[in-house]
From TrEMBL:
Lineage: Bacteria, Pseudomonadati, Pseudomonadota, Gammaproteobacteria, Oceanospirillales
Membrane topology type: Multi-pass membrane protein
TM region positions: 6-25, 37-68, 88-107, 227-250, 279-299, 306-327, 339-362, 374-393, 462-482
UniProt protein name: Anion permease
Main location: membrane
UniProt keyword annotations, A-Z: Membrane, Transmembrane, Transmembrane helix
Compartments where found: Membrane
Pfam families tied to this protein: Na_sulph_symp
Organism: Vreelandella neptunia
Length: 488
């Protein structure tokens, strides 16, 4: 008997929740039946994603089919399917997919590992220095690695484990506290910080950009450069503070590591001289950063300004033309194609919730509840941010969490008088900060937690403390920085 293509209980729960909302709960006043059906399908989809009833790509195909067949977007069958597929023309979706394809070059050429070992060869004389080497290595490659799992788990984690093994710090031998526990924590907690710093550093960020645009009526359109500049100062402060705070929280037994620099040099020697493909990859990396930062326009005028997604396509084209990546590499980058598929489905559903009036209705009810509490916009904003952040304890997917809650929370905060730009920026940062909390918070967490260097209690303790630290840095440091940038 073949294995079922879906998990029975999560699937049954998702279907039951959908039918309960649609057929059992009375239609609230002020909503159309189409809006209520759209909500039922949306919530059912989110429940299926949280429960991992199927892979998220398969769930997305089913969601698109049901939305199109239901007729909630149009009575005309042809228009209905066009509307259900409308989000695939969104350039942000293609930006993240193409960027994931580009990031394959970091792994294929070995450039990502070389950067990591290079930092350790310079700063690795002390355990704290190795921690900072891991953090800044991840920061260097973050702009072109939208898969935070590939970055933290696929590139940096093998380097971290190699160093820990070199010091005989192994979970199976009960020697994690020598150095491995600390390095695993730095390896992981670099991930949420770097994810917050660039639109292209984690897959859900463009979804956040789109939801911000929807919530503000397109008044706020966060470009790659606007996001990067806004997150620069708080991100750097956080990346500087994190290794030291974790060092104090879980001090390693081994403090001096002079042999680590030699280990890193040996690894670099094994890799040999930098290859032509690595040089090309590095040059393409720099070209992309220049284009995304709109540097050519500063010197040559607006005529040379390119859309961020156009720039990403140019970067991928250069890697294909030079042979650094082959078309087979692109086709085999399943994560990119999977992301393209589910991203489009979730943005479509979020857009339809807004168009049917559901977001406005839901936000109005939350707003009324907060208003009855008698708190001003400052208290309301704090309540919304904290609720959004710590509700991630109940989510195993940042994408599902952002899709379920971000749009409504943005709408409520803005309607209650929160300064638009600072509020959307802190919500955007929070969508990455929340990754610190649990061992299932994002794709990177089970990879690093699964290596066995930390107990569950140690992981959750560190996660909560770092969530508070990061939030304070972004609220205080970010707030001052955004004031200086003229965002309010």
């Amino acid at each position: 008997m073949s294995t079922l293509p879906f998990k029975p209980w999560p699937t049954a729960i998702a279907v039951a929740v959908t039918l309960l909302i649609w057929l059992v709960i009375p239609l609230p006043e002020g909503l159309t039946s189409d809006a209520w059906l759209m909500l039922a399908m949306f919530v059912g989809t989110i429940v299926a994603i949280i429960g991992k009833a199927m892979t998220i790509g398969a769930i997305s195909i089913i969601a698109i089919s049901i939305v199109a067949a239901s007729g909630v977007t149009s009575d005309n069958p042809g228009t209905a399917i066009n509307n259900a597929l409308s989000s695939y023309s969104n350039s942000l979706i293609w930006l993240i997919a193409i960027s994931i394809m580009i990031s394959r070059g970091l792994i294929k050429t070995g450039l990502g590992a070389r950067i990591g070992y290079y930092f350790i060869s310079i700063f690795g004389k002390k355990t704290l220095g190795i921690g900072y080497s891991l953090a800044f290595s991840e920061l260097c490659i973050a702009p072109v690695t939208p898969s935070n799992t590939a970055r933290g788990g696929g590139i940096m984690h093998p380097i971290m484990r190699s160093i820990a093994k070199g010091f005989d710090s192994l979970p199976e031998e009960g020697t994690s506290s020598k150095i491995g526990k600390y390095l695993a924590l730095v390896n992981y907690h670099s991930n949420p910080i770097t994810s917050a710093m660039f639109v292209t550093a984690t897959a859900p960020n463009p979804l956040t950009v789109e939801l911000i645009s929807i919530a503000t009526g397109a008044d706020i359109q966060l470009t790659w450069m606007t996001w990067a500049l806004a997150m620069l100062l708080p991100g750097l402060v956080a990346i500087l503070a994190m290794p030291y705070i974790l060092y104090l929280l879980y001090p390693p037994d081994i403090k001096q590591t002079p042999q680590a620099t030699q280990m890193a040099r040996d690894k670099l020697a094994e890799m040999g001289k930098i290859s032509l493909d690595e040089v090309i990859m590095l040059l393409v990396f720099l070209v992309l950063l220049l284009l995304w930062a709109d540097i050519p326009a500063i010197f040559l005028g607006d005529a040379v300004t390119l859309n961020t997604t156009t720039s990403a396509f140019i970067g991928l084209s250069l890697l294909l033309i030079t042979g650094v990546l082959t078309w087979e590499d692109v086709l085999n980058e399943k994560n990119a194609w999977d992301t393209l598929l589910w991203f489009g489905a979730l943005i479509m559903m979020a857009s339809q919730l807004n168009e049917t009036g559901l977001i406005a209705w839901f936000s109005s009810n939350i707003e009324n509840g907060i208003t009855r509490m008698g708190i001003n916009w400052v208290g309301a904003s704090a309540l919304l941010v904290l609720t959004f952040l710590y509700s991630h304890y109940f989510f195993a997917s940042t994408t599902a969490h952002i899709t379920a809650m971000m749009a409504a929370f943005l709408t409520v905060g803005l309607s209650l008088g929160a300064p638009p730009m600072p509020f959307v920026l802190i919500m955007a940062a929070t969508s990455s900060i929340m990754m610190t909390l649990t061992h299932y918070a994002t794709g990177t967490s089970p990879v690093i937690f699964g290596s066995g260097y930390l107990t569950l209690g140690e992981w959750w303790k560190a996660g909560f403390i770092m969530s508070v630290v990061n939030l304070v840095i972004w609220v205080v440091g970010g707030g001052l920085w955004w004031k200086l940038l003229g965002h309010y």
